[in-house]
Specification:
The chain has 465 residues and is of the alpha+beta class. Strand 11 and strand 12 form a beta hairpin.
Length: 465
């Protein structure tokens, strides 16, 4: 059985009268919509209520699913301890899901629980649901710092586990929208805030789940949303399924966005396998890449699949050789190889100046280093290769400059040097919008403290994609 319905809901504690103490009246539209959703869930009589929450245990590289037979919680942290919950977990479904995740090596499971008690991202939806429906157990799923694609994949695992056990289940995606909608709000205002709210509500109202994967993560951070990953897990739980989407409310009167929508399945739809579409896009980019990037690909694939380092030019495939300019073998320059997986950095290693006899050798060596030796990440494995995107930056000669006024974050990279310490940052990076930020990041990378004396150099790059 597929999941009976999905619901996108917020979780402001003030919406609970014992917490809000009258202030909840300002979001009455949200309360009315919540009541309607709770009544819908009661009519569906689910055996299991799956709740994804941004406020349960969360790791940067792992999804936590609450273990055990059940958990308790209350709103004591919000001065309403008498509003309490005692919930049973669907132990069998959690085990079924955990086993599938473990067998596939997907980074999710029941290990590492930090707080057993129920969080408010779970309890606010339950407050309304339990007014109308006392039956059914729950599953509590946390978010992670992993990519949106990984959140979507987790939803697909949940969908399959529900189907294998033939569970009557509903999915409740708990999450507020932007927290930066009004100057008077708790987090102030950011121009990305209203844009995020308008965009996510449009996507939800159309049931355009694939577009949820298109949201830039830096944009989401600037909008200070907390629910997007929760919504994406729910989207994955409807992979390959047509849905009837309905929008019930959207309010921003507190400076935080609250949106409520429902999604009912309407049968299978091959056009809605959105993860497959993402993979098709990745493969298309790889096929259209220029020779510099294809050389980096050839290097890292040879090393990861066969533990063999390409010799230049002997081991370069003939078809690839035809696409490479002569200067890649005759010229020397520093080069950076950057690897992204599902939109997130997975490895980046480079050289400020030439260390090899040619740019080609520089790319070959740095592709291996970026994929297996970046100290910030585990080495890339063979099963990840199909999900990667690779860029190559060829550095121009560094030029001494007298001040930050001679920098331009879009055009120039920067090298900050203090004694034997040196930090570099490439130009035109996502989230680096001003020179002060650029220099500050380069200093941190080089271990240079704010009070240290330093000199600056700038350089241009030729970026290959």
């Amino acid at each position: 059985m597929s999941i009976l319905a999905g619901f996108m809901v917020p979780h402001p504690p003030m919406i609970v009268p014992e917490v809000g103490r009258g202030s909840e009246a300002k979001i009455q539209e949200t309360i009315d919509a919540y009541e309607g959703v709770a009544r819908q869930i009661a009519l569906l009589k689910p055996e299991t209520i799956i709740i994804s929450s941004p406020h349960t245990t969360m790791y940067s590289n792992y999804f936590h699913i609450s273990p055990g037979k059940g958990a308790e919680g209350d709103f004591g942290d919000f001065r309403a301890p008498k509003v309490s919950f005692r919930e049973s977990y669907d132990y069998e479904l959690v085990n079924e899901l955990s086993l599938a995740l473990f067998e596939d090596g997907f980074p999710a499971g029941i290990e590492g629980e930090q707080e057993k008690r129920l969080d408010h991202g779970t309890m606010v939806p339950l407050y309304f649901i339990r007014k109308y429906y006392k039956g059914g157990s729950i599953i509590r799923v946390g978010l992670s710092g992993l990519s949106l694609v990984d959140h979507y994949r987790l939803g697909m695992y949940i969908k399959d586990a529900v189907a294998r056990l033939n569970r009557r289940a509903v999915f409740v995606a708990s999450g507020d929208l932007s927290h930066k909608l009004q100057e008077y709000g708790p987090y102030g205002f950011a121009p990305e805030g209203p844009v995020y709210d308008e965009r996510i509500m449009d996507v939800a109202e159309r049931g355009a789940f694939g577009e949820m994967l298109d949201f830039d993560e830096d944009f989401c951070d600037k909008a200070a949303e907390c629910g997007h990953r929760s919504f994406v897990i729910m989207a994955g739980a409807f992979d390959g399924v047509a849905v009837k989407a309905s929008k019930y409310s959207h309010q921003d009167v507190t400076g935080v966005g609250y949106g409520i929508c429902s999604f009912y399945p309407e049968g299978e739809d091959d056009r809605r396998h959105f993860l497959e579409q993402v993979m098709d896009t990745v493969n298309e980019k790889k096929n259209q890449a220029d020779g510099y990037v294809k050389l980096a690909w050839a290097s890292l694939e040879s090393y990861i699949r066969n533990q063999k380092k390409l010799r230049v030019p002997e081991d370069i495939p003939g078809e690839l050789m035809k696409t490479l300019p002569e200067e890649i073998f005759s010229k020397q320059a520093g080069a950076f190889v950057s690897i992204h997986k599902n939109g997130q950095l997975r490895g980046c290693i480079g050289t400020i100046g030439p260390t090899r006899d040619s740019v080609a050798e520089e790319i070959v060596e740095n592709a291996i280093s970026a994929s297996t030796r970046d100290p910030r990440f585990d080495a890339i494995t063979e099963d990840e290769l199909d999900m990667l995107e690779v860029n190559v930056d060829i550095l121009g000669e560094p030029e001494d400059i007298d001040s930050k006024d001679q920098l331009d974050v879009k055009r120039y990279g920067v090298i900050v040097t203090s004694g034997y310490k040196r930090g570099l940052l490439l130009p035109d990076l996502e989230g680096v919008d001003d020179v002060d930020t650029q220099v500050s990041i380069a200093m941190r990378k080089g271990g240079i403290k704010p009070g240290d004396d330093y000199t600056l150099q700038r350089f241009e790059v030729i970026r290959h994609r």
